[in-house]
Amino acid sequence: MEIIKTKNLSKIYNDNALPVKALQDVNLIFEQGEFTAIVGPSGSGKTTFLNMIGGLDKPSSGEIHIHNTEITRLSDAKLIDFRLHNIGFVFQSYNLLPVLTAKENVSFIMLLQRVPAKWMDARALELLRQVGLEDKVDVKPAKLSGGQQQRVAVARALASKPRYVLADEPTANLDTASAMNLLDIMSRLNREEKATFIFSTHDQRVIDRARRVITLVDGKVAEDLKVKN
Fold first, then answer.
1. How far apart are the first and last CA of the chain?
2. What pTM value is reported for the model?
3. How many CA atoms lie within 13 A of 134 on its CB side?
4. What burial class does residue 77 get, using C-beta atoms within 10 Å of its C-beta: 0-12 exposed, 13-18 middle, 19+ buried?
5. Residue 217 pLDDT more than 80?
6. Rg of the chain's alpha carbons, rounded to an integer?
């Protein structure tokens, strides 16, 4: 089932009056349940593309359709609400709230969604168990390793049962063992939670796990390959 469609998606940044074409007429379709890597050299438009389909930035032109909703036409308030209920984010820098415990970080999105407390706690505890952190429920980020923090971030991204998860260089700060463990977890959650994962990455470890690899060069789709793993 089609989940995301971009039509002639373009983004131009004006840096000191010099236009920079970050994306140029990108037309892509993503199906539910994909585990896809967006790759390419630095400056190719990977993060810009993720920000566009995540509703974190607006395109200069073109359309983005997610489950029959054209998010490029939504008001700022409606876009915030749409993100809250449909999109999970995993960032390179984790972006955990330092004053909250692991469970509280995972619960935060559900709190914004006004999920009843008993369901929220149960969901947070189950996700932390799934990412192997059931013994770190009450621990704050400063006491967690980088790999553990990123696992909390993955649990948080899935807490609201989003239609898709966007992961921007999620393994960039991790050693090999932590990165492979995280990829195992995300691959399993992709199957069990039915979440669609779209990665922006330079990491060959992520690319090797992807079932589809899209290469961007100078803001354009240079290659789109489906891979059997």
1. 21
2. 0.89
3. 8
4. exposed
5. yes
6. 17
